[in-house]
Design brief:
The structure holds two protein chains of two kinds. Chain A is mainly alpha-helical. In chain A, 79% of the residues lie in helices and 0% in strands. Chain A has a single domain, classed as MetI-like fold, CATH 1.10.3720.10. Chain A has helices at 6-38, 42-57, 60-67, 77-101, 105-113, 118-148, 161-170, 173-201. The longest helix of chain A has 33 residues, at 6-38. The termini of chain A are far apart. Chain B has two domains: 1-79 and 176-250, Rossmann fold; 82-159, no CATH class. Chain B has eleven helices and ten strands. In chain B, helix 8 (173-190) links the parallel strand 7 and strand 8. In chain B, helix 5 (112-125) crosses helix 7 (143-155). Chain B is globular, with a radius of gyration of 18 Å. Classes of the chains: A mainly alpha, B alpha/beta. At the A-B interface, helix 5 and helix 6 of A face helix 2, strand 6 and helix 4 of B.
Chain lengths: 204, 250
């Protein structure tokens, strides 16, 4: 019984981290401002949350397939990142909105009554108080994306999924494990680290 | 008294969701005067308070602050000249007391050492020793201490008018009495004008120079405590009846 060489495991693991990091970063960059915007727009909120909900329900393999024919994407990393982004969007978006909605009405009211501008209320009061919820969303998205990213190998995006697909094709358990175990460990570590950051950055 | 009015309401009405919450309300608050807005729940007293600092828009009538129509004020500048105290305090849970109380001075770009001096002065004024309380967070305070901090925050940039919405209603009776008494002393010492919403006639009689009685969105009566005690108005009598029964069983 012999799996793939450690050097290859390491290089595919790094590739995996890259996929996840880029996808979650883009998703957060979109979902955060969008979440702030949507807490102020009732109608847009329903549409966009509906869209994000639907994106979430598309089986990942099918979503990769749908994105393949798009001109700018094609086979490989870009398509994978686009699909992972779509999945990561919803938890971050939803948690941003939940966090902002959860700010005590009395606190928001006195912020306005004290003469803070809308921007000051957002940056000094609402966002800091929503930080724990927003970070919990980023954590959820990251952990889920680490798992989903293993499927990206199906469209040639690389990552630890390579081992899993190769192992299935060769009916070789050690090869499957060489992909599955590091991916699971990565998810656990990400969960711990992000939870630690969440605690550190939580106000009060 | 017209010239010395800090706040004038002329025919203020307000509709919320098609319902008339305030109907044609006119009165004035003189410089240095505390006016209590007394009424039952749903009488419109909180809404009336919020039309003054623009948290609720009056649908008709005019509000004049320091001789200038509220509409001509920049709403941000207007609010920074009106201290605001509410029952839930609205202290920011992620800031310590120094940051909470120094808020408006900071917004007004006071130099940091002036803000720090002012915070200490205010903490002493509301009897929260600065050395002990400056770095405390709201969750580390009792209800009474929170409310003191809320008052200190409202007074921070020395606003000419205070708006208070049942500030002491959530406190235990002993703490409430203590804070009411100190509020009266503080008010005398600083000659502040205040609009004080309450549903407690005892509190209104204690803190106010004049009592404005609201019923179903209408201003029924404006009277000094002495006049109020003698009033024959049925709603005033109803409030006073709650005083007569000193907890005796029938």
């Amino acid at each position: 019984m012999s799996g793939p060489p450690p050097a290859e495991i390491l290089s595919l693991a790094l590739e995996h981290v890259e996929l996840v990091a880029i996808a979650v970063a883009i998703a957060a960059a979109v979902a955060l401002p969008l979440g702030v915007f949507l807490t102020r727009r009732e109608r847009a909120r329903r549409w966009i949350l509906g869209f994000a909900n639907i994106a979430q329900t598309i089986p990942s393999l099918a979503l990769f397939g749908f994105l393949l024919p798009l001109p700018l994407l094609g086979i490989g990393k870009r398509t994978a990142i686009a699909a992972l982004c779509l999945y990561a969007l919803l938890p971050i978006l939803r948690n941003t909105m939940v966090g902002l909605a959860g700010v005590d009405a009395a606190v928001r009211e006195s912020a306005v009554a004290m003469g803070m501008t809308a921007r000051q209320v957002l940056w000094q009061v609402e966002l800091p108080l929503a930080v724990p919820s927003i970070l919990a969303g980023v954590r959820l998205a990251t952990v889920a994306t680490i798992g989903t990213a293993t499927i990206a190998a199906a469209i040639g995006a690389g990552g630890l999924g390579e081992f899993i697909f190769r192992g299935i094709a060769m009916v070789d358990t050690p090869t499957i494990l060489a992909g599955a175990v590091p991916a699971a460990a990565m998810a656990l570590v990400a969960d711990e680290v992000l939870e630690w950051i969440e605690r550190r950055l939580s106000p009060a | 008294m017209g010239a010395a009015a800090i706040l004038e309401l002329h025919g203020v009405s307000c509709e919320l969701g098609g319902r008339a919450v305030l109907r044609d309300i006119s009165f004035q608050v003189a410089e240095g005067e505390t006016v209590a807005l007394l009424g039952r729940s749903g009488s419109g007293k909180t809404t009336l308070l919020k039309t003054v600092n623009g948290l609720v828009k009056a649908t008709a009538g005019e509000i004049v602050f320091q001789g200038r129509a509220a509409r001509q004020w920049d709403p941000i500048a207007l609010r920074r000249r009106m201290g605001y105290v509410i029952q839930d305090t609205g202290l920011f849970p992620h800031w310590d007391l120094e940051k909470n109380i120094g808020l408006v001075p900071r917004l007004e770009n006071w130099p940091p050492d002036a803000v720090a001096r002012r915070v200490d002065e205010l903490l002493r004024m509301v009897r929260l020793p600065p050395a002990e309380f400056r770095r405390r967070y709201p969750r580390e305070l009792s209800g009474g201490q929170k409310q003191r901090a809320g008052i200190a925050r409202a007074l921070a940039a020395n606003p000419p008018l205070l708006l208070l919405d049942e500030p002491f209603a959530a406190l235990d009776p002993i703490t409430r009495f203590e804070l009411q008494r100190q509020f009266v002393e503080l008010g005398r010492a600083m000659a502040k004008s205040a609009l004080f919403v309450t549903h407690d006639v005892r509190e209104a009689l204690m803190v106010a120079d004049r009592i404005a009685l609201l019923q179903d969105g209408k201003l029924e009566l404006v009277a000094t405590p002495g006049e109020f005690l003698a009033s024959r108005h049925p709603e005033a009598r109803a409030f006073l009846a709650s005083l007569d029964d000193r907890g005796r069983k029938a």
